[in-house]
Amino acid sequence: MAIDGTSTVTHHDDRAKKKKDKQKSKRKHKDEDGINGAKKSRKGKKRKRDKELSSVHDGDYEVSGKQSKKKSNRKASTEQENSSNHFPFEYQHILAPMVGASELAFRLLCRKYGATLSYTPMMSSSQFVQEAASMKNTVADSNLYRPLVCHFSANQPQDFAKAAKLVEKYCDAIDLNLGCPQRTAFIGHFGSYLLGQKDRKLVLSIVRAGSKAVSIPIFVKIRLLDTVEETTKLCHELRDAGASLIAIHARYRATWERTGPGARDGPALLDQVAVVKQSMPDFPIIANGNVITYDDVISNKQSTGADGIMSAEGILDNPALFFPRLGDANTEGKKEYTVPKYAPLSCDDSQTPKVDKSNEKKLQKLQKKLREIQSIEQKVLESGKSSIDDDQRIKLLTKSKIQAKLDAFEKIPSSQPAEPKTDGKYETTTLTLSELAATANDKLALAKEYLSLVRLYPTKIRTVVFHTRRMCKSLLEKYQLMEDCISCSTVDEVDTVLAKIERYTKQPHTFHYDQEKAAKEKDALARKKREEGKRKAYEGRMIRKAKREGLDDLEHYLRIGAEVPTVKIIQQLKGLSKEERLAVWKKDHSQHCLSYHLEEAKGDHTFVEDDEVAG
């Protein structure tokens, strides 16, 4: 058994068997919506799968040498049963799907230190289908270390089915996002905003379409509905529509008015997951929420009866969250484990992606321009907008274009990418538990290893900064380097920040606390909290207005004018007259400040669109 939980049964053989089973099931599928046929075929299908997978391991790290027959004392025999009853991979310790956070480099780090299954970040199924060539290449790059779940948002059955078909050979399961509570999901009508009763037929048709389109399992990630009875009913309906596993984020689907337990910032309601699991004892249910330490992993699994635990927030702070499942390094330190030997995605033998020499000068010029812009931004922050001239203002407006060009350079490999593998095989090396523990128990070491992975598997710099901030938060705050980290525009700059932390840790006398810097950071945090409070107050007013008017849809006014203005939209609006600009803004963007985006700043703050989304 390999580190990632891949079974000794090949993916191709397993897929062929599942395809044959699926064809038999479809012949039995005579009823209109397919539910009855699915029920009839499930028992026979499950018996055959159990027989095929009777020899599958539990997805542990492979132990080498004389101790190869021993298992970690932290595992119970039920874990082996759970992993072989449903899928040819272990699914008890899961890295959650996270936009801008569960990219390949971070997935590999978490998998090395204990996670056994990971999801891609959310991908839009409609966009994926429209941009199939480029999007499929991204997933193909990600399939080197399996098992992998491809995670899609969808609100059209045909889009979900097509997207699932496109990635089928690159992953081991397809997941439907019914859990995202963000405003983007609200505006785009996907995620948890599809969980209302009015969209139930649509949701079930999406799951059914995906299940019919592919031979690999369809997973679903949901949030709690208003009552545990409603959540339980939903899970039964999803299962009958073709879902093979359901992950439950034990917080409510919409949190406009909620505070306390079940709200976004409150504790998860794991007792409701337990109720759902009790009603579906033979169906895989994953619990998500209230996981900070490995003790939480154990206690949550016991209290809910769930088949596995999924973590997002906890594992962002500690990528080695699941590491204790491998054993105690103090008593079992000499145990040897087989772990992946990372290699670049390109055919080039070099260990880092390189820019072609012909483009090297262009890259250097772009980096220089970005540094100049950052200097201007710092000047504005310290001395106000009046301290810069017109030429500097124009340079500020070019930041988004320059950053986009730099991101494109960062993605250029040194040669054509190799033909993507679909068997999930990879080279390995051997480490002792003590060697693994030395990094697992050191946040700075984890961050440095993450950066080394980013150099092999490039991602956006804001993602790199985000992970570094989460992993090293206490160290960055202790040494007043948080703002330095946030302002980084390259991986090398992040590496420099980590080097400072390492130096201050080893030589404490070299660090000097800056009172003025601390005061500025405190003021910035206070401003951020005030702005967040204004948004919550607005949401409350709009919901109360809908209630007063007797509207069934309490989110009606929150939907009007919620569209986020992108850089492209801002540029188009600047070419319109004031009257035309105001009309468009009232129609599409009234929840955003027109003056903030389009007019000259009157104080000492200015806004510069530096991302795909300007708001």
TrEMBL record:
<feature type="region of interest" description="Disordered">
    <location>
        <begin position="1"/>
        <end position="84"/>
    </location>
</feature>
<protein>
    <recommendedName>
        <fullName>tRNA-dihydrouridine(16/17) synthase [NAD(P)(+)]</fullName>
        <ecNumber>1.3.1.88</ecNumber>
    </recommendedName>
</protein>
<keyword id="KW-0560">Oxidoreductase</keyword>
<feature type="compositionally biased region" description="Basic residues">
    <location>
        <begin position="17"/>
        <end position="29"/>
    </location>
</feature>
<comment type="similarity">
    <text>Belongs to the Dus family. Dus1 subfamily.</text>
</comment>
<dbReference type="Pfam" id="PF01207">
    <property type="entry name" value="Dus"/>
</dbReference>
<keyword id="KW-0288">FMN</keyword>
<dbReference type="InterPro" id="IPR013785">
    <property type="entry name" value="Aldolase_TIM"/>
</dbReference>
<keyword id="KW-0285">Flavoprotein</keyword>
<keyword id="KW-0819">tRNA processing</keyword>
<keyword id="KW-0521">NADP</keyword>
<dbReference type="InterPro" id="IPR018517">
    <property type="entry name" value="tRNA_hU_synthase_CS"/>
</dbReference>
<dbReference type="GO" id="GO:0050660">
    <property type="term" value="F:flavin adenine dinucleotide binding"/>
</dbReference>
<feature type="compositionally biased region" description="Basic and acidic residues">
    <location>
        <begin position="50"/>
        <end position="60"/>
    </location>
</feature>
<feature type="domain" description="DUS-like FMN-binding">
    <location>
        <begin position="94"/>
        <end position="375"/>
    </location>
</feature>
<keyword id="KW-0520">NAD</keyword>
<dbReference type="GO" id="GO:0017150">
    <property type="term" value="F:tRNA dihydrouridine synthase activity"/>
</dbReference>
<feature type="compositionally biased region" description="Basic residues">
    <location>
        <begin position="39"/>
        <end position="49"/>
    </location>
</feature>
<dbReference type="InterPro" id="IPR035587">
    <property type="entry name" value="DUS-like_FMN-bd"/>
</dbReference>
